[in-house]
Amino acid sequence: MELASVGGTFVALPLTGAAAAKVGFVPATGLAGQAGADSSGKYGSRASGSKAARSWPVRSVQPLGPPRATLVVAGMIRSCRLLEFPLGLLDPPVAFAWWMCGSEEALGLAAGGPVHAAAAHLRSGTIAGGTGLAGGLLRQGADVIGFCSRRVGLVIRPELAVTIRGVADLPDAGLRVVNWAPGAEARRVLDRELAGHGIEPGQLLGYETQASGHQQVAAVIAAGLADAGVASEPVALTYGLAFVPLASERFDLVIPEATRGSREVQGLLKVLSSPWLMDQLGSVPGYDLSQCGEHLAPLRP
Fold it and tell me: Which domain holds residue 239?
């Protein structure tokens, strides 16, 4: 397990399974026992990975080595991993841990206390349209800090790019899509396109499929198991697939009031404007950093 302290309580993040943000042989920073009653004393912890509405199980944990300051961020956007390098250059350094999940679960984790911040979709175009979910979950107050936006669109096999110009061309061509789970932002993008062209979801082959991430969508298409799907531009280019822009997907950082003054969050705010991070994210096709590090809105009870 990877252990991090959030608000004086250890949080244990897995290093194996689908939820692991790091793969391969990576060092563990602790060992976690079975969930049980809150009787473990000094090293009680809440294990991440549960839904927002679920109570956090308490486990006995054993740190491996001295504890270190570790920023814990929940969210789906993989570019969060780029925060790890500049955080490590701070004096003293701050480690980084990432819990990969959708926006709703990330906000629930932030509200429940196991993470320092959530990287989440809060809006489409204006901040006012998307703070309702965050405000409902974070009743103790929070700050919204800009991170980045990226283009998402229709990802298709390269040989189809001549005839397929958008979602409206898919049904008549008899092409199969790979879709996302209900509630995913990419699925909403597809649904908006279908509704805008008067197409019923049932007219689209593969509409009921459920991919778990942008890379999985691209991998399925590249393997020939589907013809099209909605994913981000960088992933499409990585897999050598054609890309038709459909929307801009914005991610903001939601920082609960309880963690705002912590050393880990103060380190995060510092590195968001670092030249290294700007150069790295700015080199990724389809990314917009115009509001990175900007205080966008307070969420107050």
Answer: 118-301
